[in-house]
Amino acid sequence: MRNFSISPDLTPLYRSAIGFDRLAKLAEQTAANNGNNGYPPYNIELLGENRYRITMAVAGFAMEELEITSEGEKLLVKGNKNPTKDERKYLHQGIAERGFERSFQLADHVKVIGAELENGLLDIDLVREIPEAMKARKIEITRSRLVEG
């Protein structure tokens, strides 16, 4: 079976949209992020007009084994399991004890405001704070002045 890479031509989008030249970059990063194999599973919730929550299932990880960093428009969540001192003999091991690294691309003006770990679920709260200068404003239309000469 052959795999074909489709590279869409985004030129029509650039004609009518200003500042969306990052779209191709975001698509590439999303495609590269698909290698995460789905571990650990997560949800993204809309809590309000500009509030969001990422909930990750991190059962078995202690707070000191988790690290959250936010840099620019990238959120990175890492989990590194500390090696257990006792050697266990498993007949079946279905609970993952491997480390992970999951990244999320954040939209403009979205920032992390807090994180909590409870019952094996890591909640990361985010908010989008649009600067006043970027909010919609009404532009007054005036009559043109005729120049007499």
Automatic annotation (TrEMBL):
Coiled coil: none annotated. The keyword Oxidoreductase does not apply. The keyword Acetylation does not apply. Residues 33-144 form the SHSP domain. It comes from the Bacteria. Keywords: Stress response. Pfam families: HSP20. Belongs to the small heat shock protein (HSP20) family. This is Hsp20 family protein. The lineage of its organism: Bacteria, Pseudomonadati, Pseudomonadota, Gammaproteobacteria, Alteromonadales.
